[in-house]
From TrEMBL:
Heme binds at residue 347. It comes from the Eukaryota. Belongs to the cytochrome P450 family. PANTHER family: CYTOCHROME P450 (PTHR46206), P450, PUTATIVE (EUROFUNG)-RELATED (PTHR46206:SF5). It is found in: Membrane. The keyword Ubl conjugation does not apply. It comes from Penicillium flavigenum. Keywords: Heme, Iron, Membrane, Metal-binding, Monooxygenase, Oxidoreductase, Transmembrane, Transmembrane helix. This is Cytochrome P450. Coiled coil: none annotated. GO terms for molecular function: heme binding; iron ion binding; monooxygenase activity; oxidoreductase activity, acting on paired donors, with incorporation or reduction of molecular oxygen. CDD domains: CYP503A1-like.
């Protein structure tokens, strides 16, 4: 896939630092983020518009709005995560990027340098996913926030918020990146913004897709509701909406993992580019510059790894664990489950994604019954899907009814 990775200079320094930053923040100090993420989920659910106790809503839109609000708390802090204009711009921009990339794939490689950008721009012009409009709005908010950080840093009133270890306050990821750019001159402001846009995609779109798949499957399979609710009640009543409570919800963990096994956001995983010729143990040599990836979508539906692989079994992974299998939690990596990749570059945000999906799922199940009004037969993947990427079916709607 030519042009997929930057040529020549390799990845910028900032992109090499971000995985470590994610591990040091939303993994190591996940508990610090939980109260605000929980509150963000509750606030988002309060915006649902009920008529006669029922609200009919786009399944992806529900998941996307919840994750955008709660994820933005970790990325840009509490004030912006409550700003509707910013949140709308984030959501529109991510979908704009997908549509633009989708359309650019249709342009022949030889014409890409000449008309690729223009075609991309035209693809979303005049729609609510207009990338340029939403990017402008987002940049306005980023600039304002950066000016606040700047003033704090140079007024001597610097709080310890950006310190990874000493404060109880969760680290705002944008703030950490910005401070590193200003104080240590490790990268430019433009690079910080570029990395934030990538992180929004890596965090918000993928996690929303996971939650979307789980909500759609649950609406189709009401028999899972009672055992899941029982488990939520038990864990929340003992520990509240905390990391240990999320860890204790093993049925939900298995249900979410089964949904991701069957509905991953991409059919390929663990993309790598050879930086030098690489001889494999079977004698094949991959030339420098070769792009390789693992066909995770096929592996996850293979009878070599899964009994009855195309059938949905929400408790498949708890049964495996009970049978002594290791690596059966949602966040575990294994060669037969590659939704979060594999090896040194496996997703460092998976603990956050797991906790966020569980909290959101728990709140929804606690408060509502979930019904599938007339979308039973609709596929989960929509017509915008392309290459290895799955894009949601925006027409799939669910009804949530107050209990
Ligand atoms: C269900 C949600 C998610 C899915 C399915 C997902 C999936 C992935 C995959 C497949 C990779 C590539 C792994 C590899 O190449 O081996 C990856 C990398 C990455 N993800 Fe996630 N991700 C999710 C959530 C998140 C979240 C919440 C964050 C941030 C908090 C995040 C940040 C990253 C970063 C920074 C990388 C690059 C890692 C590196 O290059 O070393 N992801 N993710």
């Amino acid at each position: 896939m030519p042009g997929y990775f930057p040529k020549g200079m390799g990845w910028p320094k900032i992109a090499k630092t971000t995985p470590g930053l994610i591990r040091a923040t939303v993994y190591k100090h996940l508990h610090r983020y939980m109260p605000s993420i929980n509150q963000a989920i509750i606030s988002q659910l309060q915006t649902l518009d009920f008529k006669d106790g029922e609200c009919n809503v786009g399944c992806f839109d529900l998941a996307y709005s919840i994750v955008a609000r709660s994820g933005s708390f970790a990325l840009v802090g509490s004030r912006l995560s409550r700003n509707e204009e910013y949140l709308k711009a984030v959501k529109d921009h991510i979908l704009g990027m997908i549509v633009t990339t989708r359309v650019q794939f249709l342009v022949p490689d030889c014409l890409k340098p000449y008309i690729g950008g223009l075609i991309g721009r035209l693809a979303t012009l005049g729609t609510s996913w207009d990338m340029h409009t939403s990017r402008k709005i987002m940049l306005k908010h980023f600039d304002a926030r950066a000016a606040e950080y700047h003033a704090e840093i140079f007024s001597g009133n610097r709080s310890s918020k950006s310190n990874l270890d000493e404060s109880d306050n969760p680290v705002e990821i944008f703030r950490w990146l910005y401070e590193s750019s200003v104080l240590r001159e490790r990268w430019t402001y433009a690079e910080v913004i570029g990395e934030m846009l990538l992180l929004q995609f890596a965090f918000i779109y993928t996690t929303s897709y996971g939650l979307y798949g789980a909500l759609a499957e649950l609406a189709r399979r009401p028999e899972y509701i009672a055992p899941l609710r029982e488990e939520i009640d038990l864990n929340f009543s003992r520990m509240g909406p905390t990391v240990p409570a999320c860890d204790g919800m093993v049925l939900m963990d298995s249900f979410l993992k089964e949904c991701q096994r069957l509905h991953p956001p991409s059919a390929l995983s663990a993309h790598r580019v050879c930086i030098s010729d690489l001889k494999l143990s079977n004698g094949i040599t991959l030339k420098q510059g070769s792009h390789v990836a693992v066909p995770s979508g096929i592996i996850q539906r293979s009878s070599e790894h899964y009994t009855n692989p195309d059938a949905f079994d929400g408790f498949r992974f708890v049964k495996r664990a009970a049978g002594g299998a290791k690596d059966s939690r949602l966040v575990d990596l294994s060669p037969d489950y590659l939704v979060f990749g594999m090896g040194a570059h496996a997703c460092p945000g998976r603990w956050m994604a797991s906790a966020l999906m569980k909290l959101a799922f728990a709140h929804i199940l606690n408060q509502y019954d979930i019904l599938l009004p007339n979308s039973t037969s609709l596929p989960l993947t929509g017509s915008l899907s392309f290459e290895e990427f799955y894009v949601p079916n925006f027409g799939l709607r669910i009804a949530v009814r107050r209990r």
